[in-house]
Amino acid sequence: MFIPIRLLALFAFIGAPLVASAAVRLPYVFTHHMVLQRDMPAPIWGTAEPGEKVTVRFDGQEHAATADASGNWRVTLDPLSPGAPRELVITSDRAEGPVVVEEVLVGDVWICSGQSNMQWALRNAKDSDLTTLTADRPEIRLLKVNQLGSPTPLDDIDQPWELCTPESVQDFSAVGYHFGVQLQESLGVPIGLIRNAWGGSACEAWTPRERLTENELFKPYLDQWRKTESQHDEAALRAEYAERLAKFYENRAVAYAARESLPRVPGLKNPLFQQHRPANLYNARVAPIAPFAIKGVIWYQGESNAGRAYAYRDLFPMMIQSWRDHWAQGDFPFYWVQLADFKKERRLGSEDSEWAELREAQTMTRDRLPNVGEAVIIDLGEANDIHPRNKRDVGLRLARLALAETYGLKIKGRSARFDRVEFADGKAVVSFRDVGGGLKTFDGVAPAGFALAGEDRVFHPAVAKVVDKAGVELSSSEVPVPVAVRYAWAFNPVVNLYDSAWLPVTPFRTDDWPGVTQPK
Known about the structure:
This protein is an alpha/beta fold. It has eleven helices and 23 strands. Helix content is 24%, strand content 24%.
């Protein structure tokens, strides 16, 4: 049987009435071909008529709940194990027949979130024609979240799960797909991938508004949005959109029942519904998914926040923690992509750069929260395109992190990172951690991308050489008494230093001098 579903929270959001019905309803995160998370309690929830008794059966388990006064019910399955596809069956004491979710797998579920570089479709990535030749993968399932932003939390999303096929994967996240393929082949378990990204989105839009109001750093952004909100008649916009949504719900229910392609959710080009408004995407795209059990999150975002990089030091860990708090699933793994190199190459090793400061803020988050990691791609960008087409290597570097840190495989996951520096005799010796078997340059010449400065705070290119497994010695005839080191501190630095797993060394600086994004 098909699953009769509406986006109930969107009706609430636009102020339309919710008609009580004896029919049990599930949100769209529970649809045919879905993946349930293994080895942990798995919540199942939905709506019914108030007081209606609902029974959920799956893999020999049976759990019952009674819908509360608002019609909400929830049960939790005991930890599950992978195996053959199964059916999730929901019955009630008032419905005519069961709701059956078919072809359900048990494995690991990862959310793929961020902005356009995570959203970037496989069809537009490098070697997509080759990749799709092997994209018929029944052990991988895909879910795309596309709905508009909301000022209040929603209860549902707008798309169902899909099988991974050469056709369905074309519009899926290229980074997410390559990440998922590597995990599935390495672990031998089903993988569910939820693409939940919006191009150009600001990190503030993925963060609860009440969290933002607690920190003065975000006051200018909130004040700007209060002014924007005052310039629009939001109630009128909601009323107009309600009519379009009602027709969409009708058409979608018919299409889903007939196993036909679903219609596209109607859009609305207004800033109040878009990807920059504070909390808009948290409410519309994070709140409806939780508490669906997941393994973790991969994240690629930051370009839209580069001009506010100093605030990102607090914003990014705050956002991650808000997601973890909302899920109430503990400190699940959260791995992100550091910004790639972009714009004209610079050999100096240090320049005023918003992107360098955003990368620093991303790296600082490693020390702010547990169970997080950073995929460094300072070597994978393109000078003339903010969307580098090589998404495969990005996905593989994220997969390295997950396989090493989450799954405990004996591989190197983290890029080498600055540890300490010693200044003596006109030189600087930088020591790194997480170097694996040692540091090396990919072209066999001296390391590039280092700069030194003295008390005048003027940086000059440094002559560098690898002096031991984890150390680099620096000097400059222009800086007789160095006091600060910077590495890859530019939009697009020329770098060639790697660790033993051919992961690029993480950009860094040893000084804390004011940057271009620091508040005056």
